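Re: Re: token formats

Sure, here are both.
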Amino acid sequence: MATVVLDTSVLIHLDEVRQLGLLACLQGVEFVFPDEVWQELVRTDRRARALAAIRAGGMRRLRLDVGTELPRMIQFLDQGLDQGESACLALAESRDFLVATDDRKALRDWEACVGANRSLSTPGLILLAMRRGLLDLATADACLAVWATHRFKLSFTSFAALV
């Protein structure tokens, strides 16, 4: 089973389109996030929906190991990443997990550490759900419209181009 560490950006973008429930439906993938990501989810309504996703088995919280992962998190912070991104990368690197982030700098730093093909994005998760028959094209494309209103614009106008 693959384990994916979720950055705050992914949780927020999935929440904006009310698709956190997809995480529990993606068989063969375990989703986790560090406490630092939880701290970045500052809106009460967003936290409530994240808690519902945790209760549904869609994801779970993990704590960083103080001896190994915390020092590595500090190194990522020194590179200019925020606390949540730094914690995600330290956790994923230490435990050989994948990372899900929509932050380009975090993605570049991650790929510099471990190479390509060890990361996902929110659109990548939506595409995975589509390929597994969990979302149809109309629902996926509706996500793009919502994200655009929240300043999360992508280089494509329809998931049809990716399927």
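Second one below.
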Amino acid sequence: MTNQEIIQNEYLKNRYMRCLSDEEFMNRFNLVFENMCIIDDNGKISLGSVNSPERMFWFQHWIRICAEAELRTIYANQIANVYLTKKTHQFLEKIDIKKLKQIRSKTEKQNYLYKYGKEKFLRKIIEDGEIYIRPASFYSDSSLNSAIKDDELRRYYLLNQNYKNVNIKIQLNNENHSINKGIYKKTINSDYYVYCLAEFFDPRLFNDFDADSCLIIKHPQDFIKKIKNSLAGELFSFSCGKVKYFDPLLDNPFETSLIYSKNFAYSYQNEFRLAFVPYNTRSLNATVIKLSNIAEYLEIVKII
């Protein structure tokens, strides 16, 4: 029996996607496919190497997705995949392959952080030390594109059918937890400031974030310390770290905090975030903080 057959058989014994509507299943189909894909050194969409643990994770999910699609008689030609769009192909055609390879070569295996955005705003970070920080609630704005838009004050998990008649509400630290009609919801008690970065250089993020440039932060610890000192204190507690991505059908809601967890649809973004949580519940507005002496370890790069 092949590995693919083993994974298929294991899924059929625990058909956890059975509870999804066809629309929900197609959304999951798309997100698994999108996370499987990378943009390679030649500026082409590729599936990458199956020797990578991350790639293997998504290939296994793909095998399960295909098994479920066959049971539903849903096939690939029925899926309108959002990643294979005209916008994406136009972006790929503009990539300067030489620049892409040079940047990947100098950033590979480096402990850098990255900020994607418009050059005019990234220049203000270097030249004026201005960092624009938004409250988490901002990211639920319906005008944002799908790569950026998310409800950063809530997280949802779909429990199995054994919980469909359970109705529970509890509070844990600064989070409210509830189970209702098989949906597990976590809600944070207060808005908070969040500053989002990426752990890796990835050309895909230029396209997803509508960015024309990427800011490379070559001394992350110094950069983070300066941001912390500018805002944390009597009003806010500060923390930072990697975002952990959860599968809402399979993962345990208690394994991660709300602030540092996101649906695995966003897994390819490899986010590293800084968070400022107010000690007392309050509404927050976007704010600008000023940092000094940071230009020497920042660099703006482009691939178009």
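The first strand starts at residue 38 and ends at 39. The mean pLDDT is 90.
- S.
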